[in-house]
Amino acid sequence: MKEIMFSLNSVWLVLGALLVILMQGGFILLEAGSTRMKNAGHIAGKTVFTFGLASIVFWAVGYGFIFGGNSNFFIGLSDFFYSGDQADGMPYSTAAFFLFQLAFAGISLTIAFGGFAERAKLSAYLVFAILFSVLVYPVVAHWIWGGGWLAEHGKQDFAGSTVVHLTGAMAAFAATILLKPRIGKFNKNGTTNNIFGHNQVYTALGVIVLWVGWFGFNGGSTFVVDDGFFGFVALNTNIAAGAGAIAALIISWMVLGKSDIPTILNGALAGLVAITASCAFVETWAAVLIGFVAGILVFYSVKFFDKLKVDDPIYALSVHGAAGVWGTLSTGLFATPELAAVGKPGLFYGGGFSQLGVQAMGVSVSALYAFAVSFILLYAMKKVMKGLRVSEEEEIIGLDVSEHGNYGYPEAFITNEEKNRIAN
Amino acid sequence: MGAFPQCFYHMGCEEMSYTTIKKWRDTELEKHDASSQALNVFHDSVMKKVFETALKKQKALHGPPPCLYSWFVMGSAGRFEQAIISDQDHGLVYEEDSESAAQYFIRLGKELADGLNEAGYPFCDGNVMSSNPVWCKSKSKWNEQLSKWLKEESFESIRFLLIFYDARVLVGEEEYIFELKQHVHDYTNQNPHFLERLLENTQHVKKAVGFFHQFLTETHGSYAGSIDLKQSGFFPYVNNIRLLALKESVNATSTLSRIEELTKLPNYQRDLSWCKGEFEKLLHYRLQYHKKMTENYDDIHYLDVKELPKDEKKDMKQILLNGQRLQDYTQAVIQGMMRK
């Protein structure tokens, strides 16, 4: 029986890893759809190579920093260049667990790159992919999941509203500040222009791929299949996403007078991000409420960053940042005594303010760390690499050509002369 | 009316050019912007001056007109509702159905369009000008064209019909336009479903007041924070009143006089009595706002609501909401008629 469970758990973890890695595909569609044609090939292609880089770095040091032994207050210090060894007493394949964790590190990095979109140099992606995967993500992940100091406080973050989403969003925030807005985003008179994405169908498809991938993200985070608890986690995940989409539709219709498609898509994602921390700790009605609030929050968050003149092309700060904070705090309100396997019940279940306090402290310290370290790293890169951003000319012709010498949509850009040459 | 340059009154004066008219228009304009009524009387007089000059040039090159004709304006000019800046919308109808007459009047139309443009009325983006054969036709060809538009019921033909329906004669034979409009009235009386088709065409309105009674302003772009006064404010009044006027065969072209005519009819007396005051306020407000900023034609459609005093904000919201109310009312009238 034990061997069967071991195998089933391992299958479940690898399946989870596959679904989470597939979310990279969701991000490719989401990001490419939300940006302009001239950058589409670049945005899609860079996701593949940065995930490759993140995989190698995670294997070399990331995994060891998070889950390694001899750990101190800050990080773990063993299992570097992980060999695939089975850890004693683990009820599933350690290699499967490794793959699952690697997939998460990759997602956090891709979220961070949302803040780079349409203006960062390719080399900036390359260098920051390594630095983030060594110095930013593993530290927060160790604190909360690797037995670090926040884990000791009983910080609840089931699948990573803080660890994965907020960490990525904070790096995106640092990047978007240092990179400055895209050309043409803000007018001299203080108004904002809408730089429309080139394909809403891609963006919507990206959201659905992410939505499905999230069953691996949250459901897989049970690690084991005992009792089929992952089914409950998946249920909470799905209804929170639905509530987020509905709330976003309603709020955009009430405030703007029309139901805005990008807002609806952001609402679904915000619901997913928010329920990520709490999906295993709350009842279904609370999951609906958490998703609903996230859908409204993301709408106002986008407006807020526009007002701050922060250019966030893929809404990473609002979807992963604002909703990540809310999701983390939500367990401090709604975690039930029966479900709170980690930490204490929330405020509405007789737990008082103690869990909410732990959540608030955890989310603030993690956000601050991720932001400050990312900012310092990017600032140093800016100095050493003579800027993070492509030249004005390169930005205008598009990163497909400036960084890769090739168009994502060649027919849309090549001259008639070239077209004729190909035809003949 | 201010003093016209002397040479205007002097037959054969060489300097009687569009540029002179433009100069005179620009200096005189502010004396005539106290009310929408005064402003539109002034616009009429400028456009008539342009016509005189155009006709004179045409006569010098191609001789006198071969037959009776009528020059009419449409759009906001037809409705006597021009703002300080307006583009040109106009057409010609003439008696004689011949190739030579067609050639004569299309030349005149071209001259008129150029002249108006030079005098400060920019070309019409939609090419609704006497220089376009669609809007410059003999009486019989006009009748044929109207029949075609009426039967076609396509998006474009309906748009053309609604534009034509605001035609108002500035120079020439007024009966020509009445006769052509009678053609439209006859058709709609026999084919009441056509009104429903027209209703569909005007149903889409850009809302400007939202769920929380807040202004729905532009969120992005250089007009962020403004409402589109043309689309959200004027269109509901202009389009719905036009539709009701068409239904009741009212010949007046300005929205205000259409309301007046409609409220003489027992059915509308009670339901539309509020309407005239609201539309007058809208005209008044637009004029006040635009005296401050008339830099380009696009500007005049947008109203920055942040700048408004509190009571005007309230007033403007009420006007916009009443526009939506008029929309609902018109829909009920047309659909109610269809059910009978």
Automatic annotation (TrEMBL), chain A:
This is Ammonium transporter. Belongs to the ammonia transporter channel (TC 1.A.11.2) family. The keyword Transport applies. The chain crosses the membrane at residues 12-30, 51-75, 95-117, 124-146, 158-179, 200-217, 229-254, 261-278, 284-302, 314-336, 356-380. It is found in: Cell membrane; Membrane. Its main location: membrane. PANTHER family: AMMONIUM TRANSPORTER. It is a multi-pass membrane protein. Keywords: Ammonia transport, Membrane, Transmembrane, Transmembrane helix, Transport. The lineage of its organism: Bacteria, Bacillati, Bacillota, Bacilli, Bacillales. Residues 11-409 form the Ammonium transporter AmtB-like domain. It comes from the Bacteria.
